[in-house]
Amino acid sequence: MSDLLPWFASARADACQRDTACYASQMQPRVVQWSSVHDFLGAAHDFLAAREAEHCLLFGIASVVANHPEVYREARFWTVLEGDRVVAAALRTPPHNLLLSQIDEPRWLAALADDVLASDELPGVFGPTAAAHTLADTWSARTGRTAIRLAHERIFRLDRVVAPRPAPGRCREAEERDRALLAAWWEAFSIEAIPDAPRGDPAEAADRMLRRAGRVAYLWDDAGEVVAFAGASGPTPRGIRIGPVYTPPDRRGRGYATNLVAAVSELQLASGRSFCFLFTDLANPTSNHIYQALGYAPVVDVDHYRFP
Description:
Blueprint: H1 5-26, E1 30-34, H2 37-50, H3 56-67, E2 76-82, E3 85-92, E4 98-100, H4 106-119, E5 124-128, H5 129-143, E6 148-158, E7 170-173, H6 179-193, H7 202-211, E8 215-222, E9 225-233, E10 239-246, H8 256-270, E11 275-281, H9 285-293, E12 297-306
Parallel strand pairs: 4-5, 10-11
Antiparallel strand pairs: 1-2, 2-3, 3-4, 5-12, 6-11, 6-12, 7-8, 8-9, 9-10
C-alpha cells in the first residue's frame, strides 16, 4: 500500500489542477455585445437596478433609446458575465463617449476594455472614477496618446425636497415660443460645462425637449422674463435625472436655479417617482452646496475623459 501513496498523491494533485482549471475557465468574464436595447435591458436590468442611483445615467439613456429610438440611432451595448451573472455593463451612443456601469473587479473591466477597444474607436469614457481612470490608462497604453480628464463629477440622489428661500417667479414647462432660447441655452451650458466634449445640434436638442422625447424642459419665469432652465430626463425604474441646469451669467446669484431645481424635483416626486438624481461638477463648490441644501445626498464620484 505504501508503494501506492505517491501515485495517489500525484493523481489527486492532477485532479485538483483539472478541477481548478475547469472552475477558472467557467468563471472567466465573458463579454456580450447587444444590438437591441430591449435585449440589453432584459439581461442587465436587475444588475443596473441593484444600484439605481449609481446607474441613473446608463439606465436613463437606455430607456430613452428604448422609447425614442430616433434619438440615438446607432446605440450599442455591452454586458460582462461571470458564469450566468451580469457583473458589468456599458453603452455608447455615437458620437458620445463610452458610458460605464459600476465595475467592482479589475478582471471584469479588463475583459470589457479588450472587447470595446478592439471593436470601437472611442472619443472618450465616462464612468466611476477608478474604472474610468483604468480604462483611460489602458487606452493610453495601447495608443501611445494621453487621455485628458475633462471633469470630475458626483452623482446625488434626493427623495425629499428641502424648500429653499423663495425667489421671485414661477416654474413652467417650456413651450414652442421658447424654442430659440432652449437651443441657445443648451449650447451655452454644453460649452461651459464640458467644452471639449462632443456636442449634438442645439436646435435638435430643443426640438427633442419640446416633443418630450426623452427629456422635458422647465423654465423659471420671473414676471414674463425667462431666467433659468432645467431639464428632467432619462427615467429609471423608480427615479429620473434632473439636468442640465443653466442660468445666464447676468442672472446668477438670485436663487432662480435653486428654486427651479426644487420645483422640478417636487414635480417628479409628486408624479410617483421615488428619487431624483443629478450630477454636479466637483470644481463648482457653489452648485454642490446648493443641491445638498435642497436635500440631494452624494452617492458616487464619476470622471469624464477625452481621448484625443
